[in-house]
Amino acid sequence: MDYTPATLADRSRMLQAIGLESTAELFDDIPSIARRTHLDLPEALSELEVSRLLRDLSERNADLGHHPCFLGAGSYLHYIPSVVGHIIGRSEFYTSYTPYQPEVSQGTLQTIYEFQSLIALLTGMDIANASMYDGASALAEAAIMAANVTGRDRILLAASVHPEYRRVIQTYVQGLAFSVISDPFGSSGTLEPDQILPHLNDDVACVVVQYPNFFGCLEDISKLARPTHDAGALLVVVVNPIALGILTPPGEMDADIVVGEGQPLGIPPTFGGPYLGLFATREKYIRNIPGRIVGATTDTRGQRGFVLTFQTREQHIRREKATSNICSNEALCALASTVYLSYLGKTGLRQVAELCLHNAHYLADQIAAIPGFQLAFSSPFFNEFVVRCPVSPETINARLRDAGIIGGYELGRDYPDLADALLFCATEMNRRVDMDRLVSILRQVTAHVVPAAAGSEGASDA
User: Is 0.85 surpassed by the pTM of this model?
Assistant: First the structure.
């Protein structure tokens, strides 16, 4: 919408209508000491000059279109087929609002229904909702849902779950009578059944794990499911949907609730959002699931139709018994993921996952072969892995940035025990030439460090 400023004549008429002589009189009630009469702003620019300035500023960004990226940690660069943009950019999808009136919202309702069907199939679960804000809020809602289902108030949260997701859970439950226990990860980088057994009692509502976890390692979901269920708790699994192109779905390993970030499915990283929360569960929990659910039905003429169903949401009825206080779905992002999955199909999604897997293992092998670098964990991994470095991760990332490469995630931000480690990611977007260049720079950064250390150890042994 164009901005049309009020003219001097307009302002004069408005002041006259309210009985004032000047605009300054509007602020008489504000103490003069609190008024800022001068702003240190540069001279005004023309529209053309502003466009050039903003373009020049944007070109200073290390954007993913011009720089090889090995940064994942919850947001991933994948190729998005052009058909995704063409379809979600159609006006009937791009401008549609919430589908309260099914008689005029059949198109939107059907796209949501197809999205739910695809996510249920991908996760191996019975039902999925119409999406949530993002993966973090979906997980927080899952933990609260598990507490409501079981009537318990403790959440057992693996330390290998994304640290930002764990902080969001803490924020969600701080006003509730829930407690959160965070279990450490073992030397393999995963959570073992014997680690959770001491904590499993009549108060634990759920065990939360990530698959693959934040370090890229593959948790053994089936081994965690049995002790969790024996204790009467639910198993909540956070997934990377691309990984499910080749991994066994959590639903086939007795997970009760599956959530995740849908961003890898046809949505660009875009500086952190908007994203897409995935939420799927067992049919027996359909009345406990947060967010919207679209169901298929038959109208009075016998034709197939779609409606919102099980609407115990706070924007409808039973507000005090609503399943969630935050239930808006990301319909346009969900449509993007629906188009992406439909276009790729089962075989295409598997091919993308395999490319991610092969690229990550190639890069990990190359880095591990550099003197001074070593893989931090022994567990199998998907498209991310942790590397311990002989020099500070900050130094390495700075050198990579100077070379036009976006490096890994510095794990010391969240894990003091991994202050010397970087989390690297590889997807189908990483070319072999870029991976080799990354490895070459790592060799250069550490060339003057590792040989000297090795020499001193040899002298000590002698």
Answer: yes
